[in-house]
Amino acid sequence: MSDKKASNEMWGGRFASGPAAIMEAINASIGFDRKLYAQDIRGSLAHAAMLAETGIISAQDSEKIAAGLNTILSEIESRKFAFSTRLEDIHMNVEARLAELIGPAAGRLHTARSRNDQVAVDFRLWVKEETRKAGAALERLIAALVARAEEHAATVMPGFTHLQSAQPVTFGHHLMAYVEMFGRDLSRVTDAVRRMDESPLGAAALAGTSFPIDRHRTAAALGFREPTRNSIDSVSDRDFALDFLSAAAIISVHLSRMAEEIVIWSTPQFGFVKLSDSFSTGSSIMPQKKNPDAAELIRAKTGRVNGDLFALLTVMKGLPLAYSKDMQEDKEAVFDAAETIELTLAAMTGMVADLTVNDAAMKKAAGSGYSTATDLADWLVREAGIPFREAHHATGRAVALAEEKGCPLERLSLEDLRSINGAITADVFSVLSVRNSVKSRSSFGGTAPAEVRRQIRYWKKRLKQGAQRKKLR
Ligand code: ARG
Fold first, then answer.
1. DSSP strand E in 127-274: where?
2. Ligand 1: distance of its center to the CA of 325 in Å?
3. What's the 194 CA to ligand 1 centre distance in angstroms?
């Protein structure tokens, strides 16, 4: 039996050539970390410039390195670069090509640096940019929601608890609830960016370096606020990725709740909204159907984003300081989550902007299910001085009577109502209509159209201030 055959039998399949092939496959990250090429080159350019400025390498070598790195950047962007799995990752692929291009000077680039701080800085740059992009996408979604809320500040709909009609609210108010949710997400991503805005470059393998590097200089050159303060933490920290993933997971959970409501609202049974053709599909067999596929997929993709968060939490759990190769598994989860929320946020923004609201169906539903029962109870407390618990009981009897007669509360006669409680006068009818019920809930943050408009004004101002802050930066 030849050696070749023996190894074939033992390893089989794609690893037929034996342990070397298996090791290469498990060890290499170039299949995914090539995504970091621009950040890797930026980091190396900043490092090389600093090495020359501090006299650690010569200006000529630094210039050669910079020219070579820029050539590599254009090779990658024009898809002429040959990535090699044998060279393991993006860092070694770039460095090997640099040696081909400029010769021995290439070997000076890695002075006072390790792949440990190199990958940490590359990945931070990438995550920081994606986190900012998520913030911008959230702002677009919030703006779309605010615009629809303004249109529908006075459109009544049933408000639900337990998905049972509870009290009438306005559609604008309901949409503004999502604005609050996505607004918290926006503050989470803004906060995450601020926290991750520190450069780990110069931490080297884990202990720092004996070369007189200037970490403040590279931090500033790369757009970081300051360098990280502890070299051990710098190469073992992936909190920035976890911050991004947790924010992404919460964003996805919010998106899934809204998607679920859109699915419910667009059923013929509810008929509150109609989705535009661009965000729904027909059925291949049932010609009458229009399916809310985009909403369903937004709802479903929450699963993978939550999974991405869990994947990295689990990778990091129990890792001793400082760097371990485990941490190479940090990237795919983050890439996947970033791509996913970019898509789902855009889809939700489009769907919100495009959907048609059926005011009449909402209004009709708002009046059903005795949704103004609380208003009757409140009237009894306010106007007749009855304790709330007693008023609650009397209202229960009014609902039972209306049910018996098959009519809404406001269609009961004054005599009917007085048979339940003698203190009731004709004035009660002023609170039993859906419109008046909504209008009366004018407590701060409440559903009265005037209050909803106040919330809208607040958010418009906040969006404008955010845009101005960005311009100043
Ligand atoms: N590809 C590696 C990663 O993604 C780069 C760092 C490798 N460092 C090392 N000491 N092997 O984590």
1. 156-161, 164-170, 198-199, 226-227, 273-274
2. 6
3. 25
